[in-house]
Amino acid sequence: MKNWSTILKMLVILGAFGLFSLGTGFYASIQIMKIDGGYSNLLVEQVRAAQNMASAGRALQRARAAIADSIMLTDPKAVEQANSELAGAKQTFSELMDVAAQASPENKHIPEFKQAGLDILEKQCARALDQGSKTTNAMETMSAVKTFATECQPGFPQLAEQIVTETRTLEQAALKASDDLTIVSTSTSNNTLLILFGGLALVLTASYFAVNSWIVKPINALRDLMAVLAGGNLDVDVEGTERRDEIGKMAAAVQVFKDNGLKARELEGQSEEMRATAERNRQAEQERTAREAEQLRLATSTLGDALKRLAHGDLACRINAAFAAEYEPLRADFNATVDQLSRTISAVAVSVHSMDNGTREISSGANDLSQRTEQQAASLEETAAALDQITANVGNSTKRTEEARTVASRANHSAVHSAEVVSQAEGAMNKIEESSQQISNIIGVIDEIAFQTNLLALNAGVEAARAGEAGKGFAVVAQEVRELAQRSAQAAKEIKGLIQNSSADVGSGVKLVRDTGEALKTIGGFIVEINAHMEAIAISAREQSTGLAEINTAVNQMDQTTQQNAAMVEQSSAAAVSLAQEASKLRDLVGQFRLDAAAQLSAPAQTARAATPDSKPVASPARALGRKIAGAFGGKATAAAAAEDWEEF
Known about the structure:
Blueprint (H helix, E strand, L loop, with lengths): L5 H67 L3 H28 L5 H16 L1 H8 L4 H15 L2 H76 L15 H21 L5 H40 L16 H140 L4 H119 L6 H6 L18 H28 L1
Helix pairs in contact: 1-2, 1-4, 1-5, 1-6, 1-9, 2-3, 3-6, 4-5, 5-10, 6-7, 6-8, 6-10, 7-8, 9-10
């Protein structure tokens, strides 16, 4: 160091100041970039992956509902709409799972979940959809529903549970990453302060001892030596003449002064003119040396005062008084170093201010998110209660449908029994018709007997007339027999007419009984078909009851998850508030440095950054569920009313 010039020594000190400033700023910039990158990864990748997986799970449930509608509905337009909803839900599920996989490429479960969902929709449910598309009656519909319940339906709950579990895992990973970033931010703040104040104290202390050792002590020693020489003691040795810096030059000048003094002693006996000349030379040399010493003392004193102010945190200190020409670069380098340090501290203050604004915005956003989460939890709780009531109503409807199916079955049995009774009545009427025909034949025989009797009576009358008086009695008897035969014939004729009328009536009755039997058979067929429809309705009602129970369970789980999210958001808000407090403390510590007006004006103006969310609000699943239930049980009007009610939420 003895061979270095004073300017070079001061440049070493100022270079240490500059390196310290650059190192501190570089460290703070790297840590801030790491924190910003961590928060970007947390907010963009992890949260987007969890949101898209949750939306994909809801799309899979919509696909399951569309499959059930496609199988059970009979209206072609409704079936076409259900198939369209199935295709849309399937495409939405695939796209959302792709987005989630892109957001979290290291997660290997997301592609597996996507493939499992597509296998369920395209393979496990294929046979049920094929049967449902070909149904023509209630029995085929029942077979398709059974296939859906045994082959297609069981795969959905397990995959939905896996997706929910993976979503929770992503949320927990995001929370852990947030906690790690908080720890890194706190550590960065503390390390920055420690490095800043520790390094500043170390550099200032080293600068003080270096200036004292390299400049102040040699100058003081040279001053004392000059005082001794000025007192006339020329026997002392001049130290430092071998140095190549300014102090060495001053020592060389003092050595010259000493040598001149010694020569003056030798030439003391010379003439007065030479003594006067030597005296003038000595005085001139002494004045020049004194001027140089005064200039060096003024420079070191001014530099020492500026270093003391800098050690007390005054970054506005500058050396405005001009130094000697040889010391002027030292003053310029000191002012440049202080300017650079002031700009660095200003940049740190701006970064701290930005961090403070960011933490306040995070805290405000977390508070807003906490309030919205609490509102959503309350709405989900009301939705769960409404679903409980709807589930109870569907259970009652199922019970009433079972009772109606039982009554229809009894009516079917009664119709079959009535058909049997009518068949027996038809047989009895046929027997009556046959008996009437036999009676009619018997009446014909009686009519012929009466005709023959009448002929016999007529012959008997003729024979009695021939007999004369002897045959009068026989003629009377023959007349009576003839009259009796005529009356029998008349009665037989009347009975035959009655029998014919009765036969016609019996024929009409047989025809009516046959028509009644056919009508009862038709009614029995209708009752069988009604019974099949009632059976299908009962099965559908049971499926709806089961589906509503699953939806109720899912809504309850959503309610619990929303409440847990609300608690986590409150924790995040508290962490953001704590981080804002730490940033405020760091800002207060940086505020201890007094900056000049130029550094303050050069700092970029900070404006409050409005919270601009990266994505638009997604549709509420509870709102979609309310519209779907309203459309299923109350028609379009009720669905519209439900949509208006949910719009307020």
